[in-house]
Design brief:
The protein is of the alpha/beta class. The chain is 44% helix and 14% strand.
Length: 443
């Protein structure tokens, strides 16, 4: 079981910035060795020429002192060698600073740290995260510190807010969840990310829209397809990984809601109306029911080392992806480590009074058993929910799902205890992956 603190031991002392240039796999040492031999051969060639010139020509007496001939030859060699190494190191450092100065931002980490982390992330596991909403973006924000091989598969059932308006007016897939994922995986300036997430609060037609949603919608019109718009938008923000839709078809999420008083079941159409209509969710489905999965999403799932479902709204963020039949089938067939990340808190109108086991039961009722290998849940319960938003219920009790491994850890965000902390969550996920036989990423 993962430690409640969810922390691994710190790196050894030799992982300081200076020594990281020598870490295996960073791609620097081979070129330093080649540079060393190049300089050595050049020095030998110059030395042969100088020795020949010195022996053939009559030199003034002062050269006796300039060439330090009053010092034993071995000591002379060591002295000149040390002076050469010192000059070489100083020149290399200053040359790097001069060449990289235009690309370095004030307060940014040293170049070796950037190179080291980049190489480590490149060798990280292939992770597929399936979901939507703020839960998925929270997970991605933490995972990007461990691996660059991330694929987020996002629901296209959102029909509320800015996304719903653009979907109805322009006929594009809802961009909101995609925008959040792009921002979470972005490796660019924080100001650019803030711009992408900026939401207009006034202006006829603009009020309520976010800049990123409009940008993706415009990019879809320019490039001719929504998937190309995601690629180009990701390129603008230097995203680590890929963001893919679960399907390119226009779908509507339907829910059968049982009314507590009357006992009758009503069918509600539209993701945004489900939690507002009252009653308990008995079942959700997509309309049309037999939609095709996006092929790249299937390929990513089958090639993954780890597949993560959630966190996120069970019925309106996670389930719409799995109701795309090929997504569920590919997930079940994949040989990856498969983890369900349970929400920290219940959600009014969706998972009231649900425990961890209830979440898994709902998943299996909709898409069958055998979808995941383990469940990751929060076990820190001594938190204050008094400032929680209106849609948040209580803590999810970490009860053991039948037939599955339950792993618990402290996963909450201290400032917003009804949410996951992205760093804690990513650390717990990577620890669980390492325990399953995989290789964890960097810390």
């Amino acid at each position: 079981m993962i430690s409640k603190h969810g922390r691994s031991k710190p790196h050894k002392a030799w992982h300081t910035s200076a020594w990281k240039w020598l870490v295996p796999g960073i791609g620097i040492k081979r070129w330093l060795v080649l540079l060393f031999f190049g300089v050595t051969f050049l020095a030998l060639g110059v030395a042969y020429l100088l020795v020949n010139f010195y022996r053939e020509q009559a030199m003034p007496p002062v050269f006796y002192y300039i060439t330090l001939q009053f010092i034993p030859r071995l000591a002379r060699g060591a002295l000149f060698g040390l002076l050469g190494i010192g000059a070489f190191v100083v020149a290399l450092i200053q040359l790097n600073r001069s060449l990289l100065a235009p690309f370095m931002r004030p307060g940014s980490e040293p170049v070796v740290e950037t190179v080291y982390r980049h190489r480590q992330r490149e060798r990280g596991p292939k992770v597929v995260a399936i979901g939507g909403g703020t839960g998925l973006s929270t997970l991605l924000r933490g995972l990007r510190m461990y691996t660059s091989n991330i694929t987020a598969i996002v629901t296209v059932a959102d029909d509320g807010g800015s996304s719903g308006r653009l979907r109805r007016e322009l006929g594009v897939l809802p961009p909101g969840d995609f925008r959040n994922c792009i921002a979470a995986l972005a490796d660019s300036e924080s100001l650019t990310t803030q711009l992408f997430q900026y939401r207009f609060t006034e202006g006829k037609g603009l009020d309520g829209h976010s800049f990123g949603n409009l940008f993706i919608a415009a990019m879809a019109a320019v490039t001719g397809s929504f998937e190309s718009a995601l690629v180009e938008s990701s390129r603008v923000l230097a995203v680590r990984g890929r963001i893919l839709p679960s399907t390119l078809q226009n779908v509507t999420l339907m829910a059968d809601l049982r009314q507590e008083v009357e006992g009758r079941v009503n069918r509600v159409a539209g993701e945004s109306r489900i939690t507002e209509s009252g009653g308990y969710i008995e079942r959700v489905c997509l309309e049309p029911g037999d939609v095709r999965a996006y092929p790249e999403a299937i390929r990513a799932i089958l090639e993954a080392d780890m597949i993560i479902l959630g966190p996120g709204s069970l019925y309106t963020s996670i389930m719409p992806n799995l109701l795309v039949r090929d997504i569920a089938q590919a997930t079940r067939a994949s040989r990856a480590t498969k983890i369900y990340v349970c929400n920290v808190a219940t959600q009014h109108g969706e998972t009231d009074y649900y425990s961890t086991a209830d979440h898994v039961t709902a998943l299996e009722r909709h898409v069958g058993a055998g979808l995941v290998d383990a469940v990751l849940a929060n076990d820190r319960m001594d938190v204050d929910f008094s400032a929680a938003p209106s849609g948040v219920g209580g803590m999810v009790e970490p009860s053991h799902p039948e037939g599955l491994r339950l792993v618990t850890a402290d996963l909450i965000d201290v400032e917003h205890p009804w949410r996951h902390d992205s760093r804690k969550l990513a650390q717990a996920v990577m620890d669980l992956y390492a325990q399953s036989g995989g290789r964890a990423g960097i810390n």
